[in-house]
Write a structure and sequence with these properties.
The structure holds two protein chains of two kinds.
Chain A: H1 5-15, H2 18-21, H3 30-39, E1 53-59, E2 62-68, E3 83-91, E4 99-108, E5 114-119, E6 127-134, E7 137-138, E8 142-145, E9 155-160, H4 171-178, E10 184-187, E11 195-196, E12 199-200, H5 204-214, H6 218-226, E13 228-231, H7 249-264, E14 284-288, E15 292-296, H8 316-327, E16 333-338, H9 363-375, E17 381-385, E18 391-396, E19 409-413, H10 424-437, E20 441-445, E21 450-456, E22 460-468, E23 478-487, E24 494-495, E25 506-507
Helix pairs in contact in A: 4-6, 5-7
Chain B: E1 2-3, E2 21-24, E3 28-31, E4 52-55, E5 61-69, H1 73-77, E6 81-91, E7 98-106, E8 112-118, E9 131-140, E10 147-155, E11 165-175, E12 207-210, E13 214-217, E14 237-240, E15 246-254, H2 258-262, E16 266-276, E17 283-291, E18 299-303, E19 316-325, E20 332-340, E21 351-361
Antiparallel strand pairs in B: 1-11, 2-5, 3-4, 4-11, 5-10, 6-9, 6-11, 7-8, 7-10, 12-15, 13-14, 14-21, 15-20, 16-19, 16-21, 17-18, 17-20
The chains are: A alpha+beta, B mainly beta.
Amino acid sequence: MTVHRRDLLRGALAAGAMGAAWPLMPNLGPAAAHAAAAALGASWDPAPFTLGVGSGDPLPTSVVLWTRLAPEPLADVQPLADIVQVDWAVATDPGMTQVVASGSVAASVLLGHSVHVPVRGLGAGQRYHYQFSALGKKSVVGRTRTAPVGALNKVRFASLNCQNYQSGEYSGMREIAADANLDFVVHLGDYTYEGTELGTQYTLNDYRKAQALYKGDPLLRAAHAAHPWFLTWDDHEVVNDYSGSAGGAPFVARRAAAYQAWYENMPLRIDGADSALPDPQIYRYRQWGDLLELVVLDLRQYRSAQNVTSGTILGAAQKNWLIDKIEHRSGGWHCWANSIMLGQLRSGPGGGYMFTDQWDGFLAERKDILTRAHQAGLADFVTVTGDWHSAFVQDLRPDFDDTSSPVIGTEFVAHSITSSAYSSSWNATNGPKMGAGNPHLQYFEGNRYGYDLYEVTPQRWTTHMRVTADRADPNAAMSTVSTWHVDRGRVGAYEDPGTKGLPAQYRR
Amino acid sequence: MHTTPNLLVNPGAESGSSGWTSLQGAMAVTRYDAGGGYPTPTDPGPPDRGTAFFTGGTAAKSRASQDATLPNTAEIDAGQAQYTLSGWLGGWSSQADDASLTAEFLSASNQVLATAAIGPVTPADRGNATGLWARTATGAVPAGSRTARLTLVFTRSGGSSNDGYADGLSLTLTIGGPTVSNLIVNGSGEAGPGGTGTPSAQIPGWTTVEGAAAVVKYGTSGYPTTSDPGPSDRGTNFLTGGNSVRTRLAQLVTLPGTADIDAGRSRFTFGGWLGGYATQNDGVRLSVEFLPADGPPLGVVVLGPVTAAERSSRSGLLQRTAQGTVPPGSRTARVLLLFTRDGSGTANDGYADALHLTIGAA
């Protein structure tokens, strides 16, 4: 019989035995934590490369390689020297015989024995393979690619978000890992959760162990090893609905612990003028040939409180940077990696904003940015968004309450990979209400779990919503619940005729 | 260079009198909330005082001791170990009852090779106030030392209770060659005159990244005084966050001894005194990144911010330090202070003083 981690957790909660089942509960030694995690289906690669390998932030001649040594993934202290030498190599073949770059780096206990290697001197638009070795052991071989330059006919990428470990299995990541023709993966945040009634993270060790537990999912490790990732974060990497600029000392300490643990466990390139750990600058601009410009936003670190005069979700520096990217286009599709919903969302006709933790809590700044985008003639504008645990397709306009305000782009809000959405009855009731209250909303589907797959050509943007047949089964089949297109040079998305008959809780 | 953990067992009476052997009289353990005229949680004493402290009980003289096995005997025998003996000692009001702590460094055959002592603290030292005061003694550990015998002595001058008090006792060894100089420039805000809280666009040695910091004199109205918790050698000034919601100061330090660093033989000690105001949760976070000539950071250390709860809601500064191996490949260290203001109010009351980064051979 297959034991699903959701069923196990539910059973443990009912039996009051969570201390034995939840590996992040306090006072559980590493061996007991390891056993409890194993009972949930967690497993790790052989030590010391237990957490796997990854690559990220590809540029035309460079990609960042990542690994972290953690022989005891759930221990407070790793059985390692302060400094461990880690060797790395990049090859053009998966057998690692045609090595084109190699080197050594010190993995320090000061960064949880993680390494981030910005490999340079690579060729543009090339597939590469890489491997680490340390302490006489070799890691698995990872696969990555560099960004292409010049004319490009197609880019295929996937987005992931909201992967609450205790809520289900990562069948969507199985498909992503197996997709050899994917160029890269974008993660839109809520990579880890700070905890629920099952235990809460506060310290660096707490957050490190949470990161290690999530990496105990072999499908997540496989997705990292298969493709380079671009990353942003949302709130749950630290704590629900936080504003990064809040200044209370206990929160400042907690945020620093969470940010450091996140950096240690992600293939992030340190970049930007204002990057100083434990607070990396993660907003960045990247190009994929002449076909796509990717604007990765950080909507947490610099934000003010919601619903306040002069409130900001971007912070002054990022806002100026974003305006510059909007007003100085380099061509191609202009895509924001946007952790939390940009479009307005009222609960129904004349209703209030449903969640002001999203851009709805920063009305003046949103209107300013989208008005500037319109004035600058921003074309071919698409936003890929996470956070909501349900799928939305909607028009973007500078003033959402004015139906004569011009449509300037499309927002695709993706399903979560596992984190729980509203009930099907809530969705059935509220889908039509949200549609009636938000004329810009084209589509809503909240009963499924999965990821979005994007196929982008010079002529057309296509979003496939890939969903799992069973959130509790890592081997469940994946299928497309809806496909949408945007034609180049024309604003507004339209659904593919092939999916119009499939279930959804609202279609305009 | 590195410093050992505290070698004493039960150094602050938080585990009763366990770890201590009574030699004379009967040492007692009293709670700060006991009442009856004993020191209270808010009387002068250790900022992290816990719940209890040692007293002399009711005997005219009480003595208790414990033996600590010394680590790093090779370095001790090479003359490369320094001791720091410290603790909080005190008494009651104008009465002359007192406490002292001695450390005898013993050879393998229990020969006394050297003695160190702190205390007693007299009523005059205490200004006739009830409470405990910090005392420290440092020196070289004699070659051949293998054990330190710590003895607490409480002496009654009159009355029935022996009101010598002791808490927060510590013996540490610092191992390594001669102390190297602090690599942080103006880590104590003493490089220029101190003010009363007006922010300065420029602080000598520091680059202002965000907001504007202030250099404030101890004793300025509404700020810590020279007798609030803080560094014993605090000088005249400390740093604050000025009037900005967030203030950041940065300093890039060039690391010495790159051959030792690249061989993994270089140890760092990093820290400072961090604090804030009364019950407010304004604070300052101190961090350092170890950076290679080119590439991402090789290590990071984050200290603080010290919360109001950690300060027991008292204005002042507490010490935060870290030691470790400098990651091979490191060439510079970027020191960053992030002062944050919590909620409303004008002043950003994160306080920092006596910041230090030293590098030595392991």
